[in-house]
Every structure is written in C-alpha cells, then in structure tokens.
Specification:
By secondary structure, the protein is mostly helical. The chain has one domain: Up-down Bundle (Butyryl-CoA Dehydrogenase, subunit A, domain 3), CATH 1.20.140. It has helices spanning about 15-40, 50-85, 90-100, 105-115, 125-130, 130-135, 135-145, 155-165, 180-185. Helix 1 packs antiparallel against helix 2. It starts with 16 loop residues before the first helix and ends in a 19-residue tail after the last helix.
C-alpha cells in the first residue's frame, strides 16, 4: 500500500510556478517587514503616538507577520512532509534547510517591534479597542514580557542563527509540524488555508 501523502493541495513540486512564486513572496515580505519596522517603529517616539496611531502600527505589523507566517507554514510543511516520506530526497532536504535559514532574517523586525511595543502607554486599553489586537493579545503581551530580556541587536541575531544551527531530531526543528499536519488532513480541499502558526518558531524575543 502506498502511504505517501498527497501534497497536491499544497504544491505540485518544488519547481512548480506556485512554490517558486510563494518563495519569492516570502523573501520580499520578510525584507518589507524589516524595512517597515525600521521606518515606523521608532522606540524613542513610541510615547508620542496617539492610541489610534499605535493601534494602526501594531495592526500593520501583525498583518505582515501573519502573512509571512502563512507563507512559511505552507512552504515548510510541503518540504518537511516530502522529506519525511523519502529521506533520500535531496531536493526536499535542500529546501527544508533553505527555509530554516530564513528564520533569523526576521530577527531585526522582531527585536525592533519588541523594543517599541514595550514603550507604548496604555497598551491594554489599546488592545481592548481593536478586534485584531484582542485576537493576538497573548502574542503582544508575550513580546512585552520578553523585551525585558533582550540582548543587543547583534547578539539577538547571532542567537537566532545559532538556534537554527543547533542539532535537531529530523530535517528541522519540527516545532510547527503537527498542528499544520492536522489542518492538512482536515482541509485538503482548502489550499493553504492555514492560520498563523509561527509564534513559536520565529526568533523568540
């Protein structure tokens, strides 16, 4: 009996137009979020913003982060599942490793956002007045708490790179694999309709 996954709902191959397009979009969106964070999330000016403007900037960051998360989830899930059923598939292993190396690239935006949001006054009331922010309250509060333990920007980037290089039990960390796998089984007819799944695997600052 053939026990291989039917991964057509994700991508037909690593050479498919859609996989290549999503890979390029992921790169562009990570670079875009880094630029966005650097331009808009200026720590020294955080307290000068109105509650409405603070909510807008947090929401914009979340929208970008969630889109990146969904792209990464789909691409990584395809690579990991392909490799899991054929450990000799060098193409799947290569793409899994390429995707892993993209994680540290988001460290810059993550650090900037974490430092910035910690400076916002009345964040609880700002969150309470936004349905999007309320949905991600835990994530936002976690960022505020983790901001206390931030290293320098250079040290955070180094830590993120070392985390990716650490030995693991499989082609990658696998932290995100099980929840998307369950979703894949339920949503074979809904191509890449994943929620944000990456709060636990992006640089944990």
């Amino acid at each position: 009996m053939d026990m291989r996954w039917n991964l057509e709902p994700l991508y037909s191959s690593f050479e498919s137009e859609e996989y290549i397009s999503d890979s390029k979009e992921l790169d562009a969106r990570i670079a875009g979020l880094n630029n966005q964070a650097e331009a808009e999330l200026i720590v020294s000016k955080a307290k000068e913003l109105s509650p409405e403007e603070s909510a807008t900037r947090i929401g914009k960051y979340l929208d970008s982060f969630i889109r990146i998360s969904k792209l990464y989830s789909g691409l990584s899930l395809y690579a990991e599942l392909t490799f899991s059923v054929d450990a000799s598939n060098t193409e799947a292993k290569k793409h899994t490793e390429i995707l892993e190396q993209k994680l540290p690239e988001l460290t810059k935006a993550t650090v900037i956002f974490t430092r910035w949001i910690a400076e916002i006054s009345n964040l609880d009331s700002i969150i309470q007045n936004s349905s999007l922010l309320k949905e991600h309250r835990f994530f936002l509060q976690e960022k505020i708490e983790s901001g206390t333990y931030l290293l320098s920007d250079r040290e955070e980037l180094l830590a993120a790179r070392l985390k990716i290089q650490a030995p693991t039990h499989g082609p990658s960390s696998g932290i995100f694999l099980l929840p998307p796998l369950k979703l894949l089984l339920k949503q074979m007819g809904k191509k890449k309709n994943f929620p944000s799944l990456l709060y636990g695997i992006w640089p944990t600052v």
